[in-house]
Amino acid sequence: MAMCLEKLYKNHLSPKDIYFPECILGKVAVSVIQALKYLKDTHNIIHRDIKPSNILIDWNGYIKLCDFGIAGQLIDSLASTSSLGCTAYLSPERIKREKYDIRADVWSLGVTLIELAMLQYPYTFQNPFDLMCCITDNPTPRLPESFSKEFRFFVDKCLEKKASSRPKYPDLMEFDWYKSHQDMEIDVGEWLSAVLVEEEED
């Protein structure tokens, strides 16, 4: 059985004030980036809808991307349409209807990681238009110093406002935070089981 990360944190973690350990978030990032790179390199596809509800985790600890309904073909490394995806996770260039590439998904991953780390969406807004203005005009959200400097640096780079300054997948794979979690032996399934079993016992 698999569960999306949004449901996991909203229904099982947040009510009990339990947070994702940084090592689990690292495994999430590694899995998502590997999946996105595979889509790009093998099928020349961009996902375009990265968010917690589209990342699944199962009892065996496998982390997978889902919902490829608005995935699109890249032409000369650029996506051809701009008005697809959940507004809350759109990059500034997509909101402005500019040309965009895989780095738009890198932005969405950065927002997703902050949301999972803090157990809440990082922008405060009144309506959809206000949200779009927040994303394009306000300072980007940042993780608090309680997280490692490597994690904070990784997310900061994902959330570079200027797309050309944002790293692509191979660049992200060279970051210390990525490498450390790629090599780290963590039983994600055991962590998930412990969280859910403890909940049942309560």
Automatic annotation (TrEMBL):
Q: What is its EC number?
A: 2.7.12.2
Say which species the protein is native to.
Answer: Panagrolaimus davidi
Enumerate the spans annotated as Protein kinase domain.
Answer: 1-178
Pfam families (UniProt xref): Pkinase
**Official protein name in the record:** mitogen-activated protein kinase kinase
How would you classify this enzyme at the top EC level? transferase
Entries under InterPro entries matching the protein: Kinase-like_dom_sf (IPR011009), Prot_kinase_dom (IPR000719), Ser/Thr_kinase_AS (IPR008271)
The family line of this record is: Belongs to the protein kinase superfamily. STE Ser/Thr protein kinase family. MAP kinase kinase subfamily.
Q: Which UniProt keywords apply?
A: ATP-binding, Kinase, Nucleotide-binding, Transferase
Q: Which PROSITE patterns match?
A: PROTEIN_KINASE_DOM, PROTEIN_KINASE_ST
The record's Gene Ontology biological-process terms are: stress-activated MAPK cascade
Keyword check for Transferase, yes or no: yes
Q: Name one GO molecular function term.
A: ATP binding
